[in-house]
Amino acid sequence: xxxxxxxEKKQSFFKGLKAEFKKIIWPEKxxxxxxxxxxxxxxxxxCLVIAVLDSVISTGIGFLMQ
Length: 66
Hints:
Strand content: under 5%
Helix content: over 70%
Shape: elongated
Radius of gyration: 26 Å
């Protein structure tokens, strides 16, 4: 009996999951490409900013340690 209830719960879960996936509005290809490009550009810029700050701080600490 517990197996039957467990199986029904799983089926109910997957039916609900399938219903929720049908509600998703997937982005258009052009919109998706623009968003991916924006994320990559922001990531590269942030990486460069962190690298420059790291270099400046390392140089400053090295100067103070002499």
